[in-house]
Amino acid sequence: MRRTSPHRPRRPRVALVVAAALLGALTTTPGTARAALEPAAAGTNTATVFYYTKTKNWSSTYLHYAPDGGSWTTVPGTRMEAACTDWVKKTVDLGAATGLKATFNNGSGTWDNNGGADYALGTGTLTVKDGVIAHSDPCADTGPVEGTRATVYYSTATTGWTTANIHYQPAGGSWTTAPGVGMEAACAGWWRKTLDLGTATSLKAAFNNGNGVWDNNNSADYTLPAGTTTVKDRTVTANAKDPCAAEAPDTEPPTAPTKVTASADGTSVVVSWEAATDNRGVTRYQVTRTGGTKGTTVTDVASTVLSDTGLEERTPYTYTVRAVDAAGNVSPASATATATTGEKPPAPAGGTPLGTDPRKDPIYFVLTARFFDGDSGNNRGGSQHTKSGNAAADDPMFRGDFKGLVAKLDYIKALGFSAVWITPVVLNRSDYDYHGYHGYDFYKVDPRLESAGASYQDLIDAAHAKGMKIYQDVVYNHSSRWGAKGLFTPTVYGVRDSQWSWYYDERNEGFTYDGLTVEPKSGKSYYNGDLWSTAEPTGNTCVNWGRPTGGKSAEGYTLYNCQWPSPTSGMFPKAYYHQCWIGNWEGEDARSCWLHEDLADFNTENPAVQNYLIGAYDKYIDMGVDGFRVDTAVHIPRVTWNRRFLPAIQERVTRKFGAEAAKNFFVFGEVAAFVNDKWNRGSVNHSAQFYTWKERKEYSADDEKAALEQYAYENGLGTGGQPTSTNAFLQGNDYHAPDHSRFSGMNIIDMRMHMNFSDAQNAFSNGKDSDDSVNDATYNVVYVDSHDYGPNKSSERYSGGTDAWAENMALMWTFRGIPTLYYGSEIEFQKGRKIDCGPSCPLSTTGRAYFGDHLAGSVTASDFGRADSASGQVATTLAQPLVRHLQRLNQIRRAVPALQTGQYSTEGVSGQMAFKRRYTAGATDSFALVTVTGAATFTGVPNGTYRDAVTGDVRTVTDGRLAVTAPGKGNLRVYVLNGPGRIGVDGPYLK
């Protein structure tokens, strides 16, 4: 910052410079006998300060300082002397002081005073480089090197260190004084040091950042030979090439994209193509459009699909595609593809995502078809209506709908939730498909969910009008067993003889299945006449088409080959679907095989499949949904998510709604791991936290090969080789800006807490243990049970009791992450009931029972966590003890920013479920001390006035200590520094 006054620059406060966020795995000090950062020798209490000049390019540098407790030197201070290339230094006598405050300037009014905070330095040898303090001599060992040489390159690309030291011991010699000698910047992400080993031919070494953060090879130290060696991510490469050697420029262009297709839908055109190849990798594509009155346009995209919207009616458009690599080399143009637009469709209602931080929004999860019936005209029982027992209970599987959900948004708002996670909305097709996970037409909303005046768009807009978000459950991994309309649907063998005519419907060429419309010949909405054929279809690949298998059905009927969908029959083309059944849930085949006969596994490494799915979900992004819950995310390789699907989501939201909306478009994946350890049976590729990270190396341009390469590479590194993060953790009592530079774009459901929620203390302990391996655990979606499982892989809805539920909720609503509740749990709905038994029992007896009876009546809510009015059965529901508990928890969480977006720490905290949280941004500084159920003591906290959000109790802290007595099971205390005091009114638990 430039200063014009000749007087000493203003110093409003003194603060320590904190090093950049580093991998937690590297914080262990070296294991061999060597000291930590050593003070200056007794009797010579000095500080030798080295200052980096290359960035500033000053002709002279002055050190302006004050020993601790002493006076400042006269401006501009004392001139520093040349030390070595790009460094100056000055040794100052500190007398009895143990440190000094310092600023630097060029003697002509240009200052570096650490952004107004000054630098706080200790004694001994110190470096200040671009705002970062370290402890080393950057000019050590820069003279002539004699004897055996070792040139060591160390990579800080993963750790993010801004300086590096090597602490070493030649074989047979002594260790250098900690922290060792400063390494020189070699090139981006690499540091270098050439060492004289004398007669030794090897050395032991450890590396550190000069501020106490070490990489000592997991306490084993590194053994390095003479010659040139690289150390990267704990991998030592002897006789290595110089990683900073200039590479030959890349002048080879990519190949031209192939198989370009263009298809029109109204005034939109979807263009897709197969990926180009390049010697170093394609980074983007340029799509050139000609036609219409607006001239030629060129659009850059990262994926292999472009949805071109807002075109002119009845107009031909021609497209060509070029590939571009990182060096800017451009491929030849592809062959042309042409499409002619049709009529302009009616403009849909405008949908725009709310675009706010998702951590502020607790989530209510509903199975739409089982929540509330707003329109009985779209109810459907399907082929299993009678067999399941649903008919006897007058309970069709498709019962709830968007109209019912719109009608009860105020109920959800009255509970305090501002986000609603709904099950998949695409047209489904199977014998029992109310849940939405058997997608058939991914481009069409299932008509069994919509009504006149209550379309999916109407639901999104109605929720947004109430300040509530819609998170859409999406499936990229699989389709229904009848394939995906528009990509591939199988034709299966089926003769309508005396045995099978009850099952195979007579073909009606003029009828199209939509799940809702009744086909007149059969009288069924679940018509299947379009699926069956006795004539072998053209291009059939199914083995032994129509021949008897030799087996019989349960009824004694003859079974035939190609009668049912199967991955191993050859019925599904390899290009679009995988060809095997899963055998190992933690093996590579979890990616490349079918999970179940009703879940036909997409070959998501194929560009045509990718384009089909990207184009489908672009439609729902355009409608204004606020995020995607990703089903079965673990069954698609992370590299495919990172290369294709996640960038496509970000690109579409950015293009449609802007960068801020894209930043807050919430994607959270189901990476199911049903074990209680940190890593899923040691397989990092099948562990939830793994999916929150970007890739760390390049793989084959072919996505299928890349998936195998990534699997082998990451499992080879093992759990100890995975990245770590401090994004969820306070530094002492201080909030720090999170580093999301390595974030993949996918957050996760907290499977480990979910698995352990049979006891809140277990959930808390297990959650904390995993947080350093998640990119940012403050975004974890946390729930007790769901539509699939209860804690400990239980197949029943949680039945731990009301007090335990209250305790679980108290933890979820104050600990890091986004609290989420499965519909009905607010009244312990269906507790202890089996969650899902398929069509073998009535839905009314399961955890997916119809909830609407509890919502009958009317309710209005103008604010979150409060009902303005309620009548009928819904009023009784809102009066239940857990509902009242939930409402107040939501009121407290909404009023305390630290509980929404804060980092946390248990440092200086005694107690079973106790922690401190803080969030700082702009004028907001929210600091809270929380204990759930048990007593706690907080030490080393900031002094000041704390007010409990539950009781209103006021404590004045003068010695950094605050003790809290046990509030009782399900209760909690939230002492907020300078907080608002009591929030809400006492209820059955919070009092």
Structure description:
It is a single chain. With 991 residues, the chain is an alpha+beta fold. It is built from 14 helices and 54 strands. Strands 41-40-39-32-29-28-43-42 form an eight-stranded parallel beta sheet. It has a six-stranded antiparallel beta sheet with strand order 46-48-49-54-51-52. The protein has a five-stranded mixed beta sheet with strand order 4-5-1-9-10, with no helix packed on it. The longest helix is centred in the middle third of the chain and has 20 residues, at 638-657. It is globular and about 105 Å long. The model is unreliable at 1-43 (pLDDT under 50). Pfam families: Alpha-amylase (PF00128), CBM_25 (PF03423), fn3 (PF00041). Residues 253-344 form the Fibronectin type-III domain. Residues 1-35 form the signal peptide.
Label this structure with key terms:
globular, 6-stranded antiparallel beta sheet, Ig-like_fold, metal-binding, 8-stranded parallel beta sheet, polysaccharide degradation, Carbohydrate binding domain-containing protein, hydrolase, 14 helices, alpha+beta, 991 residues
Compute the CA-based radius of gyration: 32 Å
So what's the overall shape? Answer: globular
Helicity, as a percent range: 10-25%
What's the overall average pLDDT, rounded? 90
Report, as a whole number of angstroms, the end-to-end distance.
52 Å
Number of strands: 54
Count of alpha and pi helical runs: 14
The side-by-side strand order for the widest beta sheet comes to 41-40-39-32-29-28-43-42
Q: Low-confidence runs (pLDDT<50, min 5 residues)?
A: 1-43
Q: Sheet with the most strands?
A: 8 strands, parallel
**What would you call the structural class?**
alpha+beta
Oligomerization state of this entry?
A: single chain
Beta-strand residue fraction: 25-35%
Domain Fibronectin type-III: 253-344
Organism: Streptomyces heilongjiangensis
Pfam families: Alpha-amylase, CBM_25, fn3
Keywords: Carbohydrate metabolism, Glycosidase, Hydrolase, Metal-binding, Polysaccharide degradation, Signal
